[in-house]
Design a protein that fits this description.
With 76 residues, the protein is mostly helical. The protein is built from two helices and no strands. It has a domain of 27 residues. 68% of the residues lie in helices and 0% in strands.
Amino acid sequence: MKKYLFFMVSFLLLFTVLQVISGLLLTAAYAPDFSGSTPTDGFSVMISQTQVPVMIFSALSAVMAYFISNRVMKSK
């Protein structure tokens, strides 16, 4: 149970950190296009059509959490 709890905490922490870093990079790289906007447009919402990046980050987080939990539990 202790190993499972450690895995879940490390997975959630790694997943959150990777999502925040991804959001920061995407926000920094975003260049808005004002050529087609009208003065009445207050805002626009961008919705992603693919879940691939989220799946990649979750798989990467799971693999990293697995190796971290195994390494920490073996050292105890």
